Fold:
Amino acid sequence: MEITRVVVLLAVVVLGVLVYRHHAADPEPGPETAPPGFLPPSRQNTRLAGPDPALHVAVSAASRGGWEPAARLLAATRESRDWARRAEYAGALGVAAVRTDGGEAAFLGAWERIAGPDDPDLAVVRAEAVIRLAWQLRGAGWAADTSRERFRDFHGVLAASREVLARAAELAPEDPTPLLPEVWAGIGQGRPHEEMRALWSRITALDPYHCGAHLAMLQYWCAKWHGSEELATSFAREAADGAPAGSLLTVLPLVAWFEHRPERTSPALFRSPGPTALVDAALADVAAARPDHPRLAPARHLLAYFLTEQGRHAEAVEQFRLVDGYVNAMPWRYFDDPAAALCRWRDRAVRGGRRR
Structure:
């Protein structure tokens, strides 16, 4: 298949979070200790944002060449039409499908031999894998810091991905999941606003409150990509205002605010009325969300960060406690050492709570 050839030719990658992130100075390394009841940096899971035993089993099996847990997991989400969870699972398995030494991960080939190339669950994982490969080849730096060779490989994979993405969407026309990697392809290729709005209409027609899809499209509208702070904020507010409680779309305005504050060192910046109101709205949304919402853990990570910066330490500790042991979420993955970053902010919150 085309994806296999692309991966073999171009993949010199490492496993990790295969999306664009800021360069950020690492927090000062701390001792390999943690406050009572919390885990140290070395015991933070960098693959997941929160506990999900079934996904953990599937990703672990995939790393050893086993495809059956992944197939069962994806089939269950398709049959239940749980598109939000399906997107999370496809993304995590797409990461696992990018091998460290180049080539396609063994579990995909084994899966295809049994299910055939037109299995919609296999196809959506391959769609995620090729896009995540492209972004890994590009690297996490700003454009000015990215080499010509990286850009060549990045755009080469994105161009080759069209057939893979189209086939995944064709095999599951009622499923928005194959359209999410299309958003990231559009970001990378700088597709025009009109084309991205048309893609967005296709996604929201299938699932109007898909949190993961909204977060991906928000990146397109950010100033660092193809929009502006005004466009990103407008998109985020419109989505949050029209969403039902518990959808977690109130996180979008927080993300839009965060993405357009490159200097985040002033406590007063976080403690002003605007960000405070955004945090309060997101806290209410988190409280209304179902306990198994697939975006609940990432929302808690972001809230823990904001609450710490706002000096609301007891509230921050509560959020940190609920995601302890997991680190693959914003803002921690914007640092070179996400686990160290999370533990630094967490420990600040714990110390602040003790002083009250």
